[in-house]
User: Fold this.
Amino acid sequence: MFQSFFCPNSMLENHRIAANRAALIILLALSVFLTACGGGGGNNTAASTTPPAPPVTQPLPPVDVSTIMLADKGSALAPDWQRGAFIEIYVRGYQDSDGDGVGDLKGLIQRLDYLKDLGIKGIWLMPVTKSQDGDHGYAVSDYRNIETAYGSLADFDELLKQAHDRGIGIIIDYVMNHSAAQHPLFVNSRDSDRNAYRDWYVWQASAPTGWNIYGGNPWRTVATGSYFAPFWDQMPDFNLLNPSVVEYHKNNLRFWLNLGVDGFRFDAVGNLVENGPSAWLNQPRNYTLMNEMRLLVAGYSNRYVVCEAPDDPKGFAAADACGGAFGFQLQIDLLNAARGNIDAINKVSNYFKTSPIGIAPILANHDSFAGDRIWDQLGGNINQYKLAAATYLLMPGTPFIYYGEEIGIAGGAGLSGDSKLRTPMSWSADTATGGFTAGKPFRALAANVGTQNVAAQQSDANSLLSFYKSMLKLRNTLPSIAKGSYDAPFVSGSVMGYQRKFAAEQTLVLTNYGQIAVTTNVANLPAGQTLNAVFPLNSSRSAIDANGAASITIPAQSVRVYTVSP
Ligand SMILES: [Ca+2]
Ligand SMILES: [Ca+2]
Assistant:
């Protein structure tokens, strides 16, 4: 795992070593390490003709912590674009363009027309920065470059341009809590307790006792001390109480914003700062720190921020913290409501009575702690699946679809844990490639690729994909659904109803989660006006009586959406 620390890739970097070491010492060190890497070629001229030098333990990789100033190119996107639906995409698993079996940015560009047709207004890319893990990308080894297997910064520029041309924004994952152990900053920090970057990470002379985070000891001991790394020993936590570290991250954010990226998904914001073994989650500084980051992003035109904070979505979604956060825990109620559970239907109905508009509802994501693929959780029950989708795609907030969810992709065949959720996308029924690559996919395909795939569903008006398109079309054509108020919510038996209002537009959404048709008397409507069905289009008009009530029959397991007109 550590073998590439000083070997071929970083040898090139060593030619740029900072001037605080004499050239002679660098030559000596290069000689030593070229030999260690099997590339020295036996040339010891430098070593044999120079006088004795001070001892050098190892050449440290150069770090780039340069300042980047705000340079806003403006935004090509519509105002309120971030109230449309997003899709979370794992680039490695989306589309391979060159046959190496690994998804890449060029492949994603080829699929932008599909995403536009689906009705997507924003894409969250799981980390595209260079990583040590070569998989999920959360072990970032270079905050200002693209993962080699994904392409180049030029490809990323092209992706931004092509997405913007289609009215789609791109936000990228930003990992502020930790870097890769191979990141040059940590390699320096680990070198000695006198290194200039020692205090950029969290060090103790020896591991303190009494710590337990997610069932493990977060302290990792190496020759120079013990560092704090709760998620993985190869992902050391930054010391975010060091102002230089915060400045570094701000410069990295400006790097991407200056390129034209439309915002960020911030990883693990509940874990940023630790104040002791019983005070390591959701510390007060985490909220003010994220407010600083949000303000930095807000210095650019029309950008968007959403945070991952499973233990406090509402706190971090607040306007004086991230301004946006995923609605963790809500997904459990959404799925139980879809199964017809009355208690869950009531919880869903009540959710946005007290939640900030910045909540971003999900059904699932790339982490197994948030649940399995929806197909697996619902046992392939398409009616329940459509109810779950309708519920969160028509609600307030900004919904995030996890790639493949819209076609009912299942977990990977024979896989478990997070890998099971991060398979290649099922574009076709080809059980060898899924239409994902011309080569051999880097990981097993979804177990149901033969039946649940884009090709099979695109021309089927009753497919899950067509249903997702219908829901997103409502969101994209009715401002009240995308960004309106949440009014007059009620639950009556298995029926949930609410109204959305924006400017003069008023809509009514009714969902029957039960197994039989229900006739419901809907109240609090404008007296004497008419309900016009906008979904499905063939359902009938209904009159609102003088008391502002209308009697409506909703078939079993279905959703009805109406606009109100005089
Ligand atoms: Ca590729
Ligand atoms: Ca931390």
